[in-house]
Amino acid sequence: MNNATKAIFLVIALTVSQLAWAQQPVASDTTNALTQLKPTPEKNELKYNLNQSGSHFFKATFLNQAWFRFNQSNPGSTVIGEPSNNTFDIGLRRTRMQLFGQISDHVFLYIQFGMNNFNYLNGGFNPTASSNRKIQAFFHDAVGEYLVFKNKNLLNIGGGLTIVNGLSRFSAPSVSSIMSMDVPVFAQATVDQTDEFSRKLSVYARGQIGHLDYRIALSDPFPIQTSGAALPVYSQNANFALKGHHKQYQGFFMWQFFDKEAHQAPGYNTGTYLGVKKMFNLEAGFITQKNATASIPTAGDTTYHAMNLWSVASFLDMPINRQKGTAVNAYLGYFHTDYGPNYLRFNGIMNPASGLTTGYPAGTQGNAFPMFGTGSVVYGQFGYLMKRDLFGAGNGTLMPYVQAQVASYQRITETMGVYNVGVNYLIKGHNGKFTLDYQNRPYYQAAGNQYAPGGRRGQVTVQYQVFI
What we know:
This protein is mainly beta. It has a domain at 43-63 and 85-376. It has helices at 3-22, 30-37, and strands at 46-49, 57-72, 77-79, 82-83, 86-102, 107-118, 138-147, 156-162, 200-209, 212-220, 239-240, 248-256, 279-295, 303-321, 326-338, 344-347, 355-356, 369-373, 375-385, 397-409, 416-426, 432-447, 450-467. The two termini are 24 Å apart.
């Protein structure tokens, strides 16, 4: 256990001990003794108040998302050197802890620590060397924020390692409150290329003024050389540049017609409020960076390209019948994704395959598909929350959903469609839920400098989420 991990666990231990101590009653007389016999209301959070009103506090949360998955492998896939037509794997999609609090009227601290995508391949299987299954957890966020106006979110200024992002609400998702099993990862546009799991070193301003929720950020992206993967090779297809270093400029804006979005954790956007709030937003965002990528045109010199990404979208999350507890969630967005000419990146979430047999395009193994590319994407989702206590008091309810990601990228010959259908069994809202998800995706084969679809494959996943 490294020093950072020890420090995190020490803080948690102290926080929990303070919580326990603060809640101990003092039985100095008969009245206090009788008070101890009264049942204490069930708590749903680990929170320690720093003042009597609770306006100053410190809080800890814990999240675990376990996946149990059957996948039809893309053609040519291998698992530890053996051809594999399908796989079954067990993994941890996300394991996280958050420590945050309003330390004073003007000071807010937010820290997140954890790991992602941990399965039997350990996220970094190397067939030519011994691997290390003790994958290091890391700091996702470490940010301090200054609230300029007391008790108001008109202007908050922050800095550090943070997910405060432009482009879209799904570029900075609150993963504990996802409506579907997983977020559309393409919206985390530079994930693990020039960022740290979508986080960047940034300085930002955010706030809510009337119906407007806004955030703007200046980010210092990481060089591609620090990604831990093989360095890109320049060709006629753009890839992240190996030379030069330029800042990123980002912005995201929401016009909120009804209730206001949650605004406590810096940058994070709620997936669904499960009918508690009445939300309808129009949203727009962007990310831009000078000379972010490079290519070498035929018989030419290295050419550098700006990265320009923007999106527009609508978001709906509101109750239908408050007495019954029914609600809907819907999102529809258009994404313009310009990484430079012919940029394309295959990606498979927690990929269950480790390699390919000879003759298949690199990076297409397992459950991978062209997730990121120069072109455009339309993404939509819809979910329906069924009546409260559908299976009896305390036994939870269901929320079925559908998702669609339709992309037109320069390097694929036809429009790509990736579709998901699933259902959440909400045992205790987002604090305890099972999700059953089926994904249908295309697989690809090389067609000159492009990729052509060769057929389709499916994936079935059960997720169990526990969150407090």
